[in-house]
Amino acid sequence: MENNKALSGLYPITPSIYKSDFDYLSKIKTTIESGINIFQFRCKTFSFKRKKFFLKYISTICDDNNVKLIINDDYNLIKPFDLDGLHIGRSDRDLISARKYFGKNFIIGKSCYNSVKLAKYSMDNNASYVSFGAMYPTRSKESAIITKHSVLIEAKEIIKIPICIIGGINKSNISELMKYKPDMIAMISGIFDNIDVNREIKDIKNIILK
Fold first, then answer.
1. What's the pLDDT tens digit per position in 141-172?
2. How far is CA 24 from CA 10, 27, 194, in A?
3. What whole-number distance in Å separates Cα of residue 182 and Cα of residue 177?
4. Phi, then psi, of 61 in degrees rounded to 5
5. What are the counts of helices (DSSP H) followed by strands (DSSP E) for the chain?
6. Confidence of residue 1 (pLDDT cuts 50, 70, 90)
7. 8 A C-beta contact, residue 161 and residue 127
C-alpha cells in the first residue's frame, strides 16, 4: 500500500548536465523537500565514484523527507545505499530476474516507450509501474521515439498498475496530458532548467491537481 501511494504525482528525475555541484545538489534538495512522493537518480554520464558521492547526499535527503529513491539502471548502487527501487529500460537487466532478486516489495519501473504490449508484459511480470514516452521531443534523450497520445488511452484500458509519462513535459504542455489521467508525470528539464525550482514545482502541482 505504501508503494501504491508513492507511485503518484510529480516524479522528478535528475539531469545529466548541470552548472556546478552546488547548483545540482541545491536544486535536488529543493525538489525533494517540495512534497513529492518519489524521485529518480539518473546518471548515465557519471563515473561510479561520482554516483556514490551524489547518492550519499541524495539518499539522506530522501530518507529525511520520506521520499522513495529510485536508481536508473545501476544495480551496484542499490544495496550500499538501501535504495527503494530501480527503473529499467529495454536493454537493462531482465524484469523477471530483477523482481526475483530484489523481492516483491521493491519498486521496479519499466520503460515501455510507445508499446502497450510491452507494458502488458511488464505488468504480468510484476513491474511496479510502467512508463510511456517521450510524449514530446526532449533534449534529455534526443533519440527517443515520440509516443502518440492515443497509446495512453489504450493503456488506461488494459494496464492495472500505475502509468508514468515522460519526455519533453513542462508547465506549458502538461495540461494537455492530464486528460489521460496518468498516475505519475516524470520531468527532468521541465523542472531543473528553471532558476526557481520551488516556484516551478508549485505551478506544476497546481496544474496536476486541477
1. 666 789 999 999 999 999 999 999 999 999 99
2. 19, 5, 12
3. 8
4. -65, -40
5. 9, 8
6. very low
7. yes
Q: What integer pLDDT is reported at residue 92 of this predicted model?
A: 72
End-to-end CA distance of the chain: 25
Q: Which residues pair with 10 in a beta bridge?
A: 185
Average of per-residue pLDDT across 77-85 = 94
Q: State the residue for C-alpha cell 544495480.
A: 75
CATH dotted code for 2-208: 3.20.20.70
- Residue 139 reports pLDDT greater than 80: no
CA angle in degrees (0–180, nearest 5) for 69-200-152: 65
In three-state secondary structure terms, 178 is helix
Cis peptide bond prior to 119, omega within 30° of 0: no
For residues 172, 87, 161 and 104, what is the CA-based torsion angle, rounded to 10 degrees?
A: -150
Cell numbers 512508463 correspond to what residue?
A: 131
For the full predicted model, state whether its pTM sits above 0.90.
yes
Q: Does residue 197 surpass a pLDDT of 80?
A: yes
* Inter-residue contact 41 to 72 (CB < 8 Å): yes
C-alpha to C-alpha distances, 88 to 25, 99, 107, 112, 150, nearest whole angstrom: 24, 11, 11, 10, 24
